[in-house]
């Protein structure tokens, strides 16, 4: 259940509602979730983390990561490139490597735009 819908709706549609403190809370919470998934002995790489579809906010504005359909263990090594290509990490687009940085990069660019107030509708994907 996503009481506050997906993260991009909150960022782009209700931007005036999000205070700096709340934005930092959400960003830190999302980073903690990614760190947890990447800390397994065989790290789980989401590969297609999109704020609109894969990050939802509960009633306390805690981020939840969903849609693990393309997720793979990093141990699987190289693979063909799948998922949405916007904000794709260079290591993945150039040679199919799946470092955990892939998820950080995909999430980091839109989050940075949100934090500096440069987000626009094109970031919804």
Automatic annotation (TrEMBL):
Molecular functions per Gene Ontology: ATP binding; protein kinase activity
PROSITE patterns xrefs: PROTEIN_KINASE_DOM
Name one matching Pfam family.
Pkinase
Gene3D superfamilies, alphabetically? Transferase(Phosphotransferase) domain 1
Give the transmembrane ranges: 12-31
Q: Which UniProt keywords apply?
A: Membrane, Transmembrane, Transmembrane helix
- For the Protein kinase domain, which residue ranges apply? 1-125
The record's listing under PANTHER family reads: LYSM DOMAIN RECEPTOR-LIKE KINASE 4 (PTHR45927:SF11), LYSM-DOMAIN RECEPTOR-LIKE KINASE-RELATED (PTHR45927)
Q: What is this protein called?
A: LRR receptor-like serine/threonine-protein kinase At4g29180 family
Q: What organism, scientifically named, is this protein from?
A: Cajanus cajan (Pigeon pea)
């Amino acid at each position: 259940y996503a009481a506050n819908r997906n993260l991009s709706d909150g960022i782009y549609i209700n931007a005036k509602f999000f205070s700096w403190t709340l934005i930092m809370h959400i960003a830190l919470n999302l980073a903690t979730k990614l760190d947890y998934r990447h800390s397994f002995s065989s790290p789980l790489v989401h590969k297609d983390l999109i704020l609109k579809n894969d990050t939802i906010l509960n009633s306390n504005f805690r981020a939840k990561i969903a849609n693990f359909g393309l997720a793979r263990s990093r141990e699987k090594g190289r693979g063909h490139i799948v998922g949405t290509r916007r904000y794709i990490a260079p290591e993945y687009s150039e040679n199919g490597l799946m470092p955990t940085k892939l998820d950080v990069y995909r999430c980091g660019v839109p989050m940075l735009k949100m934090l500096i107030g440069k987000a626009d509708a094109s970031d919804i994907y």
